[in-house]
Specification:
It is a single chain. The chain folds into two domains: 86 residues, Orthogonal Bundle (Arc Repressor Mutant, subunit A), CATH 1.10.10.10; 172 residues, Beta-Lactamase, CATH 3.30.450.40. The longest helix is centred in the last third of the chain and has 21 residues. The protein is α+β, with helices and mostly antiparallel strands. The strands form two sheets. It has a six-stranded antiparallel sheet with strand order 5-4-3-8-7-6, sandwiched between helices. A two-stranded antiparallel ribbon has the order 1-2. α4 packs across α5, α4 crosses α6 and α8 runs antiparallel to α12. It is built from 14 helices and eight strands.
């Protein structure tokens, strides 16, 4: 009967004996195995375990992929995508392929780059009904009125009419007696000019051909050529003004609000009496209206193309380059 020598067994274990076909582990201080390196790289972007967050890692990775794809309207390559999400290329490929099959990501035939799929747009469009818009717009209007002291409003286009769907009274004295739901003339209001500027040229010409440009005050623009020139200016600057054109005692400023598809979903603006809202004050408060519009647009899924490209320059910088830059800064301070 054969006996087992414990000392020999311990010696074999200490020597790192492995089964045939399996690569031996590297000794301390030696080179790491590729599998370990890959797992370490993939976990770098997800340092906190899903269990600690109460989530599932595959879902977290899939949504990280979707978010990065959505930031690149021209598409993103597999190599760039894997770098940004911090996953190995093969892992990113299999997750992205599943999302393509489900319709949430689309892969272009010519460049093989990934873009947002139709299922995402279908979900977003279903969520952005009028009640959802009100839910997003009301807090933004409350904040805008508190900051400016003037009445704020959010409007959409319904056929040939401009309808104020949400309104918040300002904090200043003698606020305007205005109600939500009342239609407004597009050519004589700041919110109307914003929504007219969002029309394609052909649609705008059809609107001008069938709608009467009624005069409300001596400042109302009733000439079609003059209105078109002002609409072109709104398109260039992204802001519209109403200098007593609908109500001779009221001035307004408005800017567009965009949704996830970069479409103009509505117009947000403020209005106040001319004795309090001078032309200079109107232009100064236009900056606050722009900020409110940007925040509301972000809630509707709009991604500024400039901000979307910003992570690319940061991600393109390798850790080695960052360490080299840090060394140069240190040497410069030492000199």
């Amino acid at each position: 009967m054969a006996t087992v020598n414990p000392a020999a067994t311990a010696t074999k274990r200490a020597a790192g004996t492995t089964r045939p076909g399996r690569r031996p582990a590297a000794a301390p201080g030696g080179q790491s195995r590729p599998v370990v390196e890959r797992k370490h790289a993939e976990s770098a972007a997800f340092s906190e375990t899903p269990k600690a967050r109460g989530g599932i890692q595959s879902l977290e990775r899939a949504f990280a992929i979707l978010e990065h794809v959505a930031r690149h309207r021209d598409g993103i390559s597999l190599a760039d995508l894997s770098k940004r999400v911090g996953l190995h290329t093969s892992t990113t490929f299999h997750l992205a392929r599943t999302m393509v099959q489900l319709g949430y990501v689309n892969q272009l035939d010519d460049s093989r780059r990934y873009r947002v799929g139709s299922r995402v747009f279908a979900l977003a469009a279903g969520a952005l009904d009028e009640s959802a818009l009100l839910g997003f717009a009301t807090p933004a209007l409350e904040c805008l009125s508190a900051q400016t002291g003037e009445s704020s409003h959010f409007a959409i286009r319904s056929g040939d009419e401009i309808v104020v769907v949400a309104r918040i009274a300002g904090t200043g004295m003698l606020q305007l007696a205005d109600r939500a739901g009342t239609p407004r003339p597009a050519h004589a209001t700041a919110i109307g000019k914003v929504l007219l500027a969002a029309m394609p040229d052909e649609q705008l010409q059809q609107f001008l051909a069938r709608v009467e440009l009624r005069r409300f005050t001596s400042r109302t623009i009733v000439e079609r050529e003059a209105l078109v020139r002002q609409i072109e200016q709104v398109r260039r600057t992204g802001v519209a003004f109403d200098d007593g054109e609908f109500d001779q005692e009221v001035r307004c400023v408005a800017v567009p609000v965009r949704d996830f598809a970069c479409r103009v979903a509505g117009a947000i603006g403020i209005s106040g009496p001319i004795w309090r809202l001078s032309l200079q004050a109107l232009h100064e408060k236009a900056a606050q209206v722009r900020v409110a519009a940007a925040q509301l647009s972000a809630q509707l899924g709009f991604q500024d193309p400039v901000e979307a490209d910003a992570p690319r320059s940061r991600a393109a910088t390798s850790p080695k380059a960052e360490r080299a830059a840090g060394t140069r800064r240190s040497n410069s301070r030492a000199r």
